[in-house]
Every structure is written in structure tokens, then in C-alpha cells.
Amino acid sequence: MENGKLLEARKIGKRFGPFEALSNVDLQLERGEKVLILGPNGAGKSTLCRILALLSKPSSGTLLFKGERVSGDIGKAYKSVLGYLSHRTMLYSHLSAEENLLFFASLHQVRDSKKIHEMMDAFGLSPEKRRLAGTMSRGMQQRLSIARLLLTDPEILLLDEPFTGLDPDGARQLAEAIYGQGRGDKTVLTVTQDLRECPGSAERVLILKEGRIYFDGQIPPGGNLESLYSGISDGEMQ
Amino acid sequence: MRFFSVAWLIMTKDLKEEVRRKENVLASLFFAFISLVLLHFSVDEMASDITKAGPGVLWIIVIFAGSLFMGNIFRKEEETGTFCALLMAPADSGSIFLGKFLANFVFLSVLESFLVVLAFIFTGFPLHRGTASLASVFMLVTLGYSAAGTIISAIVAREKGAALLYPLLLYPLLVPLFIAAVSLTGLAISGAGILYSPWLRLVILFDILFFCAGLILFEFAAEE
Amino acid sequence: MIGIVRKWAIVTTVFALVLNALSLYMVFFHAPVEARMGHVQKIFYYHVPCAVSAYVLLFVAFTASAAFLWKGARKYDIWALSSAETGLVFVLCVLTTGPIWGRSAWGKWWVWEPRLTTFLVLFLMYASYVLMRVFGGKDPKTAKIAAVFSIIAFMDVPLVNRAIAWWGSAVHPREVTLDPWMKETLLVSFPAVLLLAAAILLWRVHLACLEAEGT
Question: CB–CB of A84 and B84 under 8 A?
Fold first, then answer.
């Protein structure tokens, strides 16, 4: 029976020695939600993102996918619908664009080779498909990274500061790819530092500070995040 | 089956990548060549029997040259973030270990063949005696070296000072394998049979232990 | 856990001190002076128990590391680190007492004798372990990979032992004939050293617990 909540994090905590990066974090994601995670440096945003991506094990707390604990087979099922992007390319610099995509497609059991070529067309990579990823411009690398991300058609997207190092064009293209038409059913969680880059289509915002959630709610009408954010930074808890 | 296909995929990807990258492979092969030359000067050919000193020299070079390649096999993935991408694939982490192990094994085999041919040409190292035995010795020892090297490489991939830590952790572990390798090689080239040698059993035991340990423990070494 | 550890540490220390005092007396006044090597031979009463203690401690490290990987509880890591460090100390004891004895028995400070050589390799392995933990600091990732290494290292120990023994078998056959009074002395010094090892281990664990709590 499918539980309404797609992903649930209960009392997640993460310690690095004496340092508590996250404590008592509760988070629920429903299908199709678009969430932003904001917070000052060291708030634990990346740590949380990595835990949700199963790249890091929490020191305490549990992760639930469709109501069941993420481990073993459920873990595999979760991984197969997950997509993660960070500011690192996650590409093999000595493989060509096409080879990179073929590799990740095989790894994720995407058998349709047509899909790979469609992806490359969609992101304007086809003319350069033989080009080694390491010799590409940053903008093109990012497009290839996105292509890699969307190749497996993940239901849940976890993006850790994906706009870093992108020029406005690149940022727009990324936003379009993630939030654009046809992506309505995708659940997207974006960690970002830069308030200006908040894509308009994100509905909910989570503000982390010092490892705890300080705010979790709808983005105020008009999308005025600045005041909301500074309000939180000054120590007011909502 | 998926386990093996993922491992194969990773192995072929790594080999393709390294051949294009060239640095690690060339550094390793060139290092082997120059070491052979330098070590040749340190062994007085008139005074000592090549069959006594030869195997030791050969395996020392294999260990050092091999490390130049194996030490980086996970670190390079960590730098580009592809290590994360691999771990996120819906596959057993053991298959990642197997894939890397196979890639290392193939490379080491190439290195050893190269070195052995050079040794034959330049130092008159008697390879033609007991070729079958020699080939099996090389293969078995390489399996063990590859297993140990791969798991230690995974351990140091995310640590500071990995370049220093890798040999520090790996070389003491290799002591039994090294002693066995040298002894068996000596036996093989002197024409004696290796089949009943206790050293052979030691190598096989080493191979099994380290391969299984690697498969099981890789997951712990890789997660954060 | 810290309370229990402290209690046992105190108990063990008391017994260790008593037994070691008795042992010292017996080593110097009960056991006869060996004909060929003289007084230096008496170091044997510590050399052998140190070696056994080292092995026991490293086995504890192995078990604790496996438990840490399996269960993830911090306390296992504390035991793993403490026993590996204490084990290293005893390995060093073997490496110092051995040559002292060796000098009088064989005339040279170092001989590539199987057991000593094995301990040399052990020293290299566990010194690397300790170095790795010192460089890694408090990062829990370091604890995990150190545990992996500790398991692999210990698993390798019997292989190291066998390999060096076979290689060096031509070098030194070891025969030890023991006078009954020597046997008695050894029967006391053995548990004395083992208890001392246990005491040091427990105090080290105690210290690690304090460090963990204090943060």
C-alpha cells in the first residue's frame, strides 16, 4: 500500500566527532513537491542532502521511503528513483559525453539507447558527443551532468548547490531543465546559498541553522525570501 | 548476474579511462624500467647468481611500480565526485570492488609482462625455464596483490595524506605474499616444481582471505 | 560504561602490582642464573609474556573493530583504538627486550629471527594504524576505515608468522630447556605481565571515555 509521504526523515542526527552537524531533523516530502533548503554556512544543508542521497549514514534517526525503512531491497528501490547533483561534475573526464552517458545508463539499467541520444539532443550535446568530458567548457559539463542526472528519469531529485559556478545562461538552463514543463511530477529538493537564484516554481522552503530546522513552510506570496531569511537569521523561530 | 555485469562495466570503463589518461600507466611502466636499470647496478653480476637475487629485485619493482597505479584507483573517482555516483547506483557495493580489483589485476599483469620481458633482455633473467610454473606464480601472486591493493586504496581514498598512507598501510600486509612470491619464483626458474610447495598454499590462502575481506569490508570503507 | 571500566581498572592494577612485585622477587632471587648468558637471560621472563600479551591485545582490537563495523556503537571504537595502542606498546616491549636478550645469546643486536621479525612487521602495521588515527583526528570516517584496516591486519598476522618462520627456518632453531625453578618463575611472571597489560588497557579505555564525554 502506498503511503502518501514519499520520503520521510525522522529525528535525523549526524555527528562528526564532537561536532553536531545535524540534530533532530524531521522532514517529510510528498510526491511532486518542490522544496528549497536555505541556511548560512555550516548549517548542515549539504550534510542533510547527502544523507537523503544515501551517501552518508546518519548517526541517529531513520529514513523512510514510501513508509518503509530504507535498507536492503527498499534501499535499492529508493536508489533507483533517486538523482543527485552537486557542484562537482560527477563525470569521467577521460570519457566522451556519449561514453559517460552510456556508462551511467548501463549502471542504472537504462537499456534504451535511443533515450541517450534524445538526452544529448535535448541539451545540445550531440555535436560534441565524442568530446572528452574533461575538455568541455564548464557550461557544457554542467549540461552533461544534468543529462546524466535525468537519464535515469529519477522521481526524486536532490540538488546540492547546483548553481555554483554557472553563468546566468547556464543557471537558467539548469532551472528550466529541472523545473520546466513535464517535470511537474518530480519531487525536487534544492540546497542553495544564493537567494537570488531561487527558482520561482519552488513552493516550500526549509531553513536550517546550526543543524536544526528553523523554518519549514510555504514561501510567502510574492516570493519575498529575503525578509523571511533575515528574520530567521536574527534568531526568531517560527 | 547483475553483480558481475556491473563489475565488468566498471572494469572496462577504468581500463579505457586509464589508457586515455596515460599518466598512471606510463608513470608505472617507466618507473619499472628505470628501477630495473638502477637496481642492476646494485647487484654485482659476477659475484652473485641472478637466480638468487633476481626474483627479489623483480618483485620489489612490481610492488612499487604497481602502487603508482593502484594507489589512485579510488582517489581519482573521489575528486570528480564519481565515487558518489557509483555508490548511488542500485548495485551491490561488492561489485564496485570486484570491478576495480579486475582493472588492477589486468594492469598489474601488463606491468609484470613488460618487466619480465625487460628482465629477460637486459639481465639474462632465465625465463625460459619452467614457464608454466612461472606464469602460474605470477598470476596467483598478482591476484593477492590486487586484492590487498584495491581494498587499501579504497580505505585511503578519502583521507588526507593518502599518498603517504597508502604504502604505509599496504606494504606491511604484503610481507607474507612477497616472501612467498620470491621463494616460488626462485623455485620456478630453477626448474623445481612448485605444486607441492607450502608457499603455494600460503599464496592461495592469502588470495582467498584478502579477496573475501575486500568484498565484505569495501562497503564500510566506502560509506561516510 | 566508564564506571565499570574504572572499577575494573583499579582492581586489575592492584593485582598487577602485587603479582609483578612477586614476579620481580622471583626473577631475581628464586630463579637460578643461567649458565651461559648470565643475568641478562632473566629478561626472558618478560619477553615471552609481553609477546603473548601483544597478541591478545591485538586480537581484542580485531574483535572490537569488527563489532564497531557491525554495530556502529562508539564504545567498540574506543576499545579498538585503546587495545591497538596498548598492543603497539607491548610490541615495542618485545622489540626492545628481544634484542637485549639476543645480544647476549647471539652476540648481535638484531638477528632476522622469525619471531622478532614477525613483531617488526606487527610494529609497522599497528604503528600505521595509530598514525592514521592521529592524522585523521576525530573524524568518524577515520574510525571506520581504521577498523577495516585493523581487521585486515590481524587476519594477515598468522600468514606473516608462517611466511617468516618458513623463510627463516634455517636461521635459528629455538630450544628452550627450563629448569623447574625457572618454570615456576615464568608461571608467575606470565600472569603478572598479562594483568599489567589488562590494567594499562583499562586505564586507556577509561581515558578515552573521559575524552569522549568531555566533548
Answer: yes
Residues in chain C predicted with pLDDT less than 70, given as ranges, are 35-37, 169-178, 214-215
- pLDDT tens-place string over residues A4-23: 678 888 888 887 767 788 88
Distance (Å) of CA C213 to CA A18, C10, C202, C210: 9, 20, 16, 5
Give the whole-angstrom CA distance, residue B198 versus residue B178: 14
Domains of chain A and any CATH numbers: 1-81+200-238 (3.40.50.300)
How much is the pTM? 0.87
Q: Are C179 and C32 in contact (CB under 8 A)?
A: yes
Query: For chain B, which residues make up each domain, given as ranges?
Result: 2-222
**Which residues are A22's β-sheet partners?**
A14
| CB-CB under 8 Å, B9 with A106 | yes
What CATH class does C2-214 carry?
A: mainly alpha
Q: Which three cell numbers stand for residue A109?
A: 539499467
Confidence at residue A236, expressed as pLDDT on a 0 to 100 scale? 45
pLDDT band with cut points at 50, 70 and 90 for residue A100: very high
Strands A204-209 and A212-218: antiparallel
pLDDT at B16: 94
DSSP lists the bridge partners of residue C118 as none
Contacts of C65 in chain B (CB under 8 A): none
**ipTM of the complex model:** 0.87
- Using a CB–CB cut-off of 8 Å, the residues of B that contact C are 148, 151-152, 155-156, 158-161, 165, 168-169, 171-173, 175-177, 179-180, 183, 198-199, 202, 205-206, 209-210, 213, 217, 220-221, 223-224
Q: How far is residue B202's CA from residue B181's CA, in Å, rounded to a whole number?
A: 10
